[in-house]
Design goal:
By secondary structure, this protein is α+β, with helices and mostly antiparallel strands. The chain contains 5 helices and 16 strands. It has one domain (1-271): Thrombin, subunit H. The chain has helices at residues 23-32, 50-53, 56-65, 108-111, 257-266, and strands spanning 4-6, 15-16, 69-76, 88-97, 103-106, 117-122, 127-135, 142-145, 168-173, 181-189, 196-198, 201-203, 207-211, 221-223, 229-237, 252-256. The strands form 3 sheets. It has a 6-stranded antiparallel β-barrel with strand order 9-10-13-16-15-14. It starts with a strand and ends in a 5-residue tail after the last helix.
């Protein structure tokens, strides 16, 4: 297998705020003033051909399923004892509303620590402060929580039938500082027999999908043809970046819905 390349939002870059700024002022200055803030997320189809992007069935499925997708901003609160370590935005990526009580799952390599804070933007454009309540010790999974709001639409996890090779897949994420980018693919391997490792985290029983994604899709949902959640994007194969134009290997790795269910139990979230 080729190189496993996890996603990292803005590749780990941090937008810095003046030392001593409050977390509230950071949120206002760094999030509310951003060009995309407080606006509904309009889906885009940059990875699809012109003919695919026009298909009413694809657009209908994406609109319906993606109500569970959220744009995630991870905010580092800074170290008050270190003048050279100010607050700032750490990552911009994706997440999945997983429970009506306000729980959202994303990738641990995005959230990084429960000491960080998060800001969520939903498809409708509503913004919510979020706590990072749990970082998994085993897999690349993290749990955020917001205050529940009217109209919350959690993802519907895939049923007992599960998935198989050749199944259709649709993902939604936030690549390259964009939001709501839709990509399509096909399941190549329903369950990898080896663990994929990245620093302190790993992915067990990953789904391998023939699909193009980019940094910022991490933590985002992958749906089947019915709109059920089959997994969460965690990483992808990186092609040769020295060649122009760059050609994506179109191989994505997702943590399966069964892994998300097991994680919620480990994190103490009960149905």
């Amino acid at each position: 297998m080729g190189k496993y390349w996890p996603q990292s939002g803005w590749n780990g870059s941090r937008i810095r705020a003046p030392f001593g700024a409050s977390l509230a002022s950071i949120l206002i200055a760094l999030v509310a003033t951003a060009a995309w803030a407080a606006r509904p997320i309009t889906l885009s189809y940059p990875y699809l051909s012109a003919d695919e992007a026009k298909l009413a069935g694809i657009r209908s499925l994406a609109e319906r399923a993606s109500q569970a997708y959220v744009h995630v901003t991870i905010i580092y609160p800074g170290d008050p004892l270190a003048s050279d370590d100010p607050p700032g935005i750490l990552q911009q990526a994706s997440g999945i509303i997983i429970d009506r009580r306000g729980y959202i799952v994303t990738a641990a390599h995005i959230a990084k620590s429960t000491l960080n804070r998060a800001r969520i933007v939903t498809r409708s454009g509503s913004e919510h402060d979020a706590r990072i309540v749990h970082i998994d010790k085993r897999e690349d999974l993290a749990l955020l929580r917001i205050e529940p709001f009217a109209g919350m639409k959690p993802a519907r996890l895939v049923g007992l039938r599960g998935i198989k090779k050749g199944d259709f897949a649709l993902a939604v994420g936030s690549p390259s500082r964009a939001r709501g980018a839709v990509t399509l693919g096909v399941v190549r391997i329903a369950r990898l027999n080896e663990a994929l490792e990245y620093n302190r985290w790993k992915i067990e029983n990953a789904i391998e999908i023939g699909m193009e994604v980019e940094s910022g899709h991490s933590g985002g949902p992958v749906f089947d043809r019915s709109g059920a959640l089959i997994g969460m994007v965690a990483g992808y194969e990186l092609g040769d970046t020295t060649k122009r134009p760059y050609v994506s290997p179109r191989i994505t790795y997702a943590i399966p819905a069964s892994g998300l269910k097991a994680y919620l139990k480990r994190a103490g979230v009960r149905p």
